[in-house]
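User: quick one
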Amino acid sequence: MTPYWDCNFFTFFIVMIQRAFFFLTGHAEALASDEIQIGVLSAVAISCGMIGPFLVLNRMTMLANSLSHTILLGISLAALAAGLLWGGEWFDITTLLAGSFIAALLTAFCTETLTRFFRLQEDASIGLVFTGLFALGITIVTLYLRDVHLGVEAVMGNADALQLSDIRLPALLIGINGVILFVFFKQFQLASFDRSLAQTLGIPVGVFRYLLLFLTAATCIGAFRAVGVILVLSLLTGPYLIARLFCCRLTALLVWTPVVGVASVCIGVALSRHLLNVHGLALSTGGIVTGTIALIYIFVKIIFHFRKKWQRALFSV
Amino acid sequence: MIDYFIDPILRAPTWGCMLMCLSSSLMGVIVFLRKKSLLSESLSHASYPGVVLGVAFLASFFPFAEEWAFLVVLIGAFGSSLLGLYGIEWLEKKGKVFPDAALSFILSVFFGVGIVAASALQGSHPSWFKQVQMLIFGQAATMTDIHIVIYGFLACFIVLFLIAVYRPLQAVLFDAGYAHSLGIRATWLERSLFSLLLISIIVGMRSVGVILMSGMLIAPAVAARQYTNRLPIVFFLSGLFGVGSALIGHILSVEGSLHWSTPESRFSLPTGPFIVLVSTAWALFSLCFAPKRGVVFRLARIFAFRLRCLQENILKYLWKKKSSSSKDLHSLHRSSLFSLHWVLRRMVRHGWLQKKCGSYELTGDGYQKAAQVVRLHRLWEVYLTHSLGREVERVHKNAEEMEHILTPDLEQRLTLLLANPKKDPHHQPIPDKYSL
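Assistant: Done. Structure below.
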């Protein structure tokens, strides 16, 4: 029995704050499954929110979409290789990181080859690469595990069956993303806003592009247990688009994007509990978080739309 | 094999797959040429919530109409992907969001909403939920004849519409401004094309699946574009490749399911990944080996040209120096020693060079060829200085490149234009055409 068992949307937050207070004052209790869920999803949201701004600014979100598909092939190849070499497990951390590395390299390499070497237009080469590689990944997974279900789960994620150990990977990725972005912040910033200036200053723009792709792939892997490969896209782009509505400096955006992400995770989970406890609907929490992001975007957009009118009305009087 | 087309149980999935992929590969040409291939990716994902909501609607109000579920699926999918299309346009225009960010935001948000709806359906109507899940990776095996009639009707509608609007479509695809000046109502055409795109996506979903649908729009068009420059042939080939890969992919998935399942556990492979794999493989093959545009032939052309340049440069060098060792040639040309030796041996075999005590000399044939190259070089220098008014010091570099490119026809016209000159701007003699 969790302490949240009959909470509605508002009492959920009250109970959460109470328990956090107890936790901080030393009356620690075992973590409830809802708190684990919020923790894992928040970690995912923070790690996505760190690289989301750079992805959007570099116009690489569709490439991130294609990466989020191809990591399935990357993981299955890494797992097959690991299984052959040292009998590794599917959800082993080395396998997953190796898979993300393979996926990032494969996707970026194939897409660049198609555009540069085969002279195919960029949108078509992105589309061709990820659908082909994803189809291959699905086939390998289906044949290897003799089950279509894992493919579906990889696409959709399962936010309602998380354990405390699932937080390790996203937390590790927050660390990796944080360290790399902190060290190379200047380079990433320059490469996102002014490619040619970055090149003249001697920054290897291509290397940083690949680095960003690798971080994206790793982040997708961290997210894919929890929210699946498609919903991670909404955590990569959505919070940035929301934050962009009310601030415009990159450093501020880098703070606000994870904050917005965590806020939408909390609201989404509370909403999901509300629907479960009050209306008896057991819904996919990952999907609700995505829906929440869209709702927040619309809400903030409307507020900022009318704020101008209100200001005008106030000042003209 | 023929069973796949006439057997009462096997024929429906086969014909269904082929018709579905026909319509999507035809519309794929249009999005490919407009450079909007990724739009199809977003729209196919955006159709998912509509599918689920449509099925949920049917399940709660008409629980016995299970065989009509696919019609509701079509309507729901059309509605929600239309909403997705408006969402993308609104984000781009009103929200000032980058196009790719708008595409991926709409894609993930709609898919997320679809997942929420699907989880609600899973709780209330588990058997209907299974039907919806099948649409994620496509499952052709459960189609019946009634599906073929509907899908066939939609596919025919798309083909007929494309034929009917072919002229204005061509104008809009290649030059929107020109189309406007012709009085073509481009916005109207655009809207109907987008609706057709939505129809082709939702029609194809049953066999290819929501997630891989965009592959079916992109890959046949990419392959078809490799073989021709003419629009009607691109359409025809793309349709052909789409139908072909649907057929092969479907057969592979059926045979694969039979092969991998054991008596204890039935195992059915999804159709979509196989169809997409076949069409992607064909697209890659075409990118490599298509005549003229294929990368292999392009590399071969580049290689042949480089080889000719190197050969002609060696001939020219020997024409000036009379004889030279391979070491001198190597220091002159920036090619590897191995390829230089290969080229030299090749030239000896052609009878242009002969080897005398470790150094190479021109034969009679080789002398003529070399003189021809020098003649082209110097003719071009004369043309640059006399006809184009370039300074004498600056003509050599350009002529170094042009000597490999000038054709006999151009040479004749240059000779006529310049009245068969005897000296080049540097006062060197030009080898005469008739003395060669």
